[in-house]
User: Which sequence fits this backbone?
C-alpha cells in the first residue's frame, strides 16, 4: 500500500513531502501556482495522462506492479478530467503532476506501493511541454501552407498584369503581382521548411531522463518514445530536462516569419493608399473614418503588422528567460520562458488567419497599375542594354545616354509611352555616339505591355518563368504536406499502439 492519503482524507503538503511543513501561501498560489496549474490542465493534461499510461506499461514490464494494478491505475488515469483536477489542486500544492497523482490515488483502493518509484516531475513536465508544442508546430505548419496556397491562387490570377516594382521606395522596373507574390510565398515555404527542422528537433522524448542524471531502473526509453509517436528518446539525460532548444528554434522561426510578413503587409498598406490604389479589399475586410466619409481604410493590414511585432517580442521573452540560467532543469526555463512560447504560437496563428483572409479576398486593380507603369520611364534599364547589345555603346556609356535621354524627355514634357527618337539621337551625339535605329530601341524599351517579356532568366518576371516558379512551389508544398501528414500518422500510430497495449493487459500473469 502507498503512503498517499485516501481521497476522503484532507492531505496538505505533508502528504507529498517531509521537507517542508506548510502549504503554499495565498500570494504564491494566486500569482504563480494557480495560473500555471490552470494552463497545464487546459493544455498539457492529455499528455500527462498519456505519459503516465506509458509508465504503467513499463512498471508492468519490469514486474514492479501486477496486471491488476496496471489495469486499476490505467482506468483511474483515463477517468481524470479537468474539473476533477481543478477540484483537487489545493490538496496537492496546486501542482498538475502532484494533483494527477492524488486523483489516481483517490480512485485506486489498493494503490501499488511501487507505482511512481524512480520517477521525477522534471522529465515528465519536459515531455508534456514538448508533446503539446510538437502538435502545435504541426498545426501551425499546415496553417502556413494553407496561406501559401491562397497566395498561389492569387498569383495565378495576376501573372499577366503589370505593376510598378520599387527599389529604395522609387519606381524601378515593371513586375507583375504574381512575381511579387511568388517571392512572398517562397518565404512562406521556407518558414514551413524551417518548422520541419524545429519539429524534428522537438521529436525526441525526454521521458526516462529523470531529474537530470538518468534513472535507476531499466526503463525502455525507445519503446516509450515510440508509444508517444516520437522519433526517438532524447539521448542525453541532462539535455532532456535542461534544454528547450525546440522552444527557441520554433519561436525564432515564428519571429523571422513575422519580420517578413511585416514587410509584405507594409507593401500592401502602401499599395492600398490613396497615392497608389493598386489593391482593394471587400467592404467586410475594410474600415471607415469616424469623421471623413470619403475614406475607406484597411485596418486589418495595420492589425497584422502590429501583431507581427509581438512575434519577435515572444522570441525575446523565451531567449531572455533562458539566458544566464544554469544548464539544468529550472522554473525560469521550463515555465516562465514557456509562457512566451504559448504566446508566440497563439499570435502566429492569429496572424496567419488574418493573412489567409486577406490573400483570399485581395484584388489587384489592373488598369490603375498599368496607368502607373505608363507614367514612369521604366524602360531605362532595357534601353541601356539595347544600346550596348545592338549599337555597341560601352555599358557605362549606354547608362549615361539612357539617363540623359530620360532627363531630356522629362524636361521636354514627353510621356514615357511616346518617346522621341530624334531626341535620343541628339542625346547620343552629345555624348559622342551615333544610334542607327533609335525608334526601334525606344519602342522595345518603353512598351509597357512587353515589359514582362524582356526578362529571360529563370526566376524573373517573364510570365512563363513565374508560372514555372509557381509549379515548383506547388510541388514543394505538396511534398511538405505529405511529410507533415506522415508525422501525424506516426503520432496516431504510436498512441493507437499504446491503447492496444493497455487494452491487452491480462487479468494476471503474462504482460502485453
Assistant:
Amino acid at each position: 500500500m502507498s503512503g498517499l492519503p485516501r481521497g476522503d482524507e484532507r492531505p496538505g503538503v505533508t502528504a507529498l513531502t517531509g521537507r517542508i511543513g506548510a502549504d503554499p501561501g495565498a500570494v504564491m498560489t494566486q500569482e504563480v501556482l494557480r495560473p500555471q496549474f490552470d494552463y497545464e490542465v487546459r493544455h498539457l493534461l492529455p499528455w500527462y495522462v498519456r505519459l503516465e499510461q506509458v509508465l504503467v506499461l513499463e512498471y508492468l514490464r519490469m514486474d514492479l506492479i501486477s496486471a491488476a494494478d496496471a489495469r486499476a491505475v490505467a482506468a483511474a488515469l483515463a477517468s481524470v478530467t479537468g474539473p476533477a483536477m481543478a477540484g483537487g489542486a489545493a490538496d496537492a500544492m496546486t501542482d498538475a503532476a502532484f494533483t494527477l497523482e492524488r486523483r489516481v490515488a483517490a480512485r485506486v483502493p489498493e494503490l501499488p506501493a511501487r507505482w511512481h518509484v524512480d520517477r521525477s516531475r522534471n522529465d515528465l513536465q519536459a515531455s508534456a511541454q514538448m508533446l503539446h508544442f510538437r502538435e502545435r508546430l504541426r498545426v501551425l505548419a499546415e496553417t502556413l501552407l494553407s496561406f501559401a496556397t491562397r497566395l498561389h491562387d492569387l498569383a495565378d490570377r495576376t501573372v499577366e498584369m503589370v505593376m510598378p516594382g520599387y527599389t529604395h521606395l522609387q519606381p524601378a522596373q515593371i513586375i507583375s503581382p504574381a512575381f511579387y507574390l511568388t517571392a512572398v510565398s517562397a518565404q512562406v515555404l521556407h518558414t514551413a521548411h524551417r518548422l520541419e527542422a524545429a519539429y524534428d528537433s522537438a521529436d525526441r522524448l525526454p521521458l526516462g531522463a529523470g531529474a537530470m542524471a538518468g534513472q535507476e531502473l531499466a526503463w525502455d526509453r525507445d519503446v516509450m518514445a515510440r508509444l508517444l509517436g516520437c522519433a526517438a528518446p532524447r539521448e542525453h539525460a541532462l539535455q532532456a530536462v535542461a534544454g528547450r532548444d525546440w522552444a527557441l528554434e520554433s519561436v525564432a522561426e515564428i519571429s523571422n516569419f513575422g519580420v517578413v510578413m511585416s514587410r509584405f503587409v507594409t507593401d500592401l498598406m502602401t499599395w492600398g493608399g490613396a497615392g497608389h490604389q493598386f489593391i482593394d479589399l471587400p467592404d467586410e475586410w475594410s474600415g471607415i473614418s469616424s469623421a471623413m466619409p470619403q475614406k475607406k481604410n484597411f485596418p486589418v493590414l495595420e492589425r497584422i503588422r502590429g501583431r507581427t511585432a509581438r512575434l519577435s517580442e515572444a522570441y525575446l521573452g523565451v531567449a531572455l528567460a533562458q539566458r544566464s540560467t544554469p544548464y539544468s532543469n529550472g522554473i525560469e526555463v521550463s515555465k516562465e520562458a514557456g509562457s512566451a512560447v504559448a504566446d508566440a504560437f497563439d499570435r502566429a496563428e492569429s496572424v496567419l488567419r488574418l493573412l489567409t483572409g486577406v490573400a483570399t479576398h485581395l484584388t489587384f486593380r489592373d488598369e490603375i497599375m498599368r496607368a502607373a507603369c505608363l507614367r514612369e520611364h521604366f524602360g531605362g534599364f532595357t534601353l541601356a542594354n539595347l544600346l550596348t547589345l545592338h549599337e555597341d555603346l560601352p555599358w557605362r556609356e549606354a547608362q549615361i545616354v539612357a539617363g540623359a535621354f530620360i532627363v531630356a524627355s522629362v524636361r521636354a514634357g514627353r510621356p514615357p509611352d511616346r518617346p522621341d527618337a530624334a531626341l535620343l539621337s541628339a542625346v547620343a551625339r552629345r555624348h559622342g555616339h551615333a544610334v542607327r535605329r533609335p525608334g526601334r530601341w525606344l519602342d522595345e524599351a518603353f512598351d509597357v505591355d512587353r515589359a514582362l517579356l524582356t526578362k529571360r532568366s529563370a526566376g524573373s518576371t517573364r510570365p512563363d518563368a513565374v508560372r514555372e516558379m509557381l509549379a515548383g512551389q506547388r510541388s514543394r508544398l505538396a511534398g511538405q504536406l505529405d511529410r507533415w501528414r506522415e508525422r501525424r500518422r506516426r503520432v496516431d500510430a504510436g498512441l493507437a499502439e499504446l491503447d492496444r497495449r493497455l487494452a491487452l493487459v491480462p487479468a494476471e500473469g503474462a504482460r502485453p
In short: Strands lie at 163-167, 170-175, 204-205, 232-233, 279-280, 287-288, 296-297, 363-364.
